[in-house]
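user: Please supply your own:

assistant:
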Amino acid sequence: MCKAQTDLAQCYLLGLGVEKDSETAVRYYRQAATHGNAPAALNLATLVFSGTGTERDLIEADMWATIAMSKFGGANYEDAVRIRTKAMQWLPPAKLEEAHRLVRKWQPVKEES
């Protein structure tokens, strides 16, 4: 289910076969990311960092980038590091610690059978 949500989010983000709608893309990426889908977490971090389709939230961007980093290697890992590094540059220490607390307590939601 998560892969399908991630693919659908990409379609809405780019306007592939559907009307372009970044808010809907964020909603589907968030659903997939909460289930532990790393590509969705990375894409969600990117959109939340930039404020595309949602309000800009550096704490959430840092959280999702960190979660994506824990699941990726290679180029995707580097993309997640870049987002996290940018978010960290803008966050004051207390807000950065809040983001780290969110990561520590985050657990993927199990998909229903």
